[in-house]
Amino acid sequence: MPSLAPLRAAARTSTAVAIRQPNLKFPLSFRRTFSQTKSAQSGHGPSYDPPSGWLFGVKPGEKYQKEGWEGVWYWGFYGSFAVAIIAYAFKPDTSIQTWALEEARRRLEAEGILQDPDTKPRE
Question: How far apart are CA 38 and CA 7, in angstroms?
């Protein structure tokens, strides 16, 4: 039987020294806790609007004035939504069940088992 002394020595050295493994989920480049550098902001001027105390910045009794992009956004968003609904309602049926049903009916009509619904019965 082999000696257990080398295994015990290896176990003692591996538990005595705790090596801190890097956290791969959040590497050091993503952590900015207690950082001395400020984050750089981009833009064309201050982006902070101080609170005015009014809902959406409109005082009671004043009429809200739309911005230039709002009408285009509403028409584009809801218009494309309406077009998508209409396209979905009129899309062709491409399911495998529909194809199989039509193929089975076609083969049964070709073999004479099923009558063609387009032909008129003889009197």
Answer: 51
Write down the pLDDT at residue 99: 94
On the question of pLDDT at 37 being above 70, the answer is no
Residues 6+ apart with CB under 8 A from 18: none
Burial class (CB in 10 A: 0-12, 13-18, 19+), 109: middle
Local confidence band at 50 (pLDDT 50, 70, 90 cut-offs) = confident
Is 49 in contact with 57 (CB distance < 8 Å)? Answer: yes
What integer pLDDT is reported at residue 73 of this predicted model? 96
Q: What is the pTM of this model?
A: 0.41
Contact 94, 86 (CB under 8 A): no
Which residue pairs from 112-116 have beta carbons closer than 8 angstroms and sit at least 24 positions apart in sequence? Answer: none
Q: Is the pLDDT of residue 85 over 80?
A: yes
**Concatenated DSSP letters of 3-15:** -SHHHHHHHHHHH
